[in-house]
Amino acid sequence: MLGETNPKLAEKGVLSMPDTTVKKHKLIQYANGRSLEEINGTVEVPHNISFLKALFMYSGPGALIAVGYMDPGNWSTSITGGQNFSYLLMSVILISSLVAMLLQYMAAKLGIVSQMDLAQAIRARTSKALGIVLWIMTEFAIMATDIAEVIGAAIALYLLFHIPLIIAVFITVFDVLLLLLLTKIGFRKIEAIVVCLIMVILVVFAYQVSLSNPNWGGVFGGLIPTGKTFASSPTVGGSNPLQGALGIIGATVMPHNLYLHSAISQTRKIDHNSEKDIARTVRFASWDSNIQLTLAFFVNALLLIMGVAVFKSGSVKDPSFFGLFQALSDTTTMSNGVLASVAKTGILSTLFAVALLASGQNSTITGTLTGQVIMEGFVHMRMPLWLRRLVTRLISVIPVLICVSMTSGKSAIDEHVALNDLMNNSQVFLAFALPFSMLPLLMMTDSKLEMGKFKNSLWVKVLGWASVIGLTVLNMQGLPDQIAGFFGDNPTAAQTDLAHVIADVLIVIILALLTWTIIELHRGNQRLAQHLKTEGKSSAVEAAMVDGVDNQEEN
To answer: Does the keyword Amino-acid biosynthesis apply (predicted)?
Structure first.
């Protein structure tokens, strides 16, 4: 575990404090200090307090992480899963949530024990070139997620206030003003706001599902995976359960969430010379994360149930957020009498739009913080949070504006389906980036040199490797269909063949980059082991980083 900053380390610019000679007014500054330095260690947790009080003090980072598991992309895949396959894919939501809990536990533990976020830990062991590649890759993943947030927020504004869709897309850019306000109020208050927004989403859908009186036998039966869960034979509109399962998995396990959690887990002030204090922080961080991800599981499960309740009759032809909103206010499409009676008031559709807007706004905080983490960690650059958010959002709105403009002369359903397809197809970047966060995370938390007594236990190691390999294989397996989705709902045979060729090329690139990453991480760990023998445990990590920079300069 890291101690005070090594003078030689500071000289080399590795994990030293930020360069104080840089003028404060510059928009882009050199950054190589602690992860998210402005909030690192700012929340003090008293000792000798009850379990519940301690849990309350440690709660918050898990809520910021849970946001990524209930964004509009998750909404779309869960609702579609219920619409097409009834309760069959409930088990996929459950398994994805359990895998997410395991990965987020390891991410939080890495940050707490090593005092580095995942991006910093990777960069400390790898070359500058690889750091830039991983940074660009993760930025694309963040932008892909932000596209879903833009679409979700714009649709919510359109549904609530009847603002033209293209204007609503432009309005989403101004959530940077919300971010400016949030940066002034302190991290604990930001956590509280996110928790409140999550509760709004949960309560809205719990209320709607309670009215729909679902088939609870089918719901609980769907939690047990069967051979049909991952069947590849077409069943509904040419799609199959395997494609639906891959969509849910891809939208659930977010690569950038691992970077964020490893950073914000360090917001609690702890004594790193006390293994007891570290163990306490890891334990409560795990409680916090698991509780919040359990809430995220319920939200996604409720969305799938809503998809069954609203679309079961087959009378709703618009398979998008617009269609669900209209169905929640149109009693003729309801397959349940109680739900239909409440729909007459218009409250169901309004609550749905409010929850959709809340989901989109949550990303204002988490997406920006994640971008800052990877920028500082991989390329040692820092910019104001508001500017970072503005740049990301301006890039993200471009494909949405193009999509809206190209479909403006077509039917409403065509426009809605096009936006839905754009949201789903953008997730291909998540599949591309996911292995490059999962694999290094597992390698570093499994290292006794890095983690000491906090290294992964045998069962965590086994489950971790099974999750990493399984998710990577499934994401690669789903690449051809995801790429084919860019050609529309009914691609030609030639387009399908082209999609498979592109997917094969991408898989080769992924495997080559993974091999490069593994080799460099292994060499970095060897440097750590070498310095451990000569300089002692307290300075081994810092010394190895200095040696790594020396090697990079020589090359």
So the answer is: no
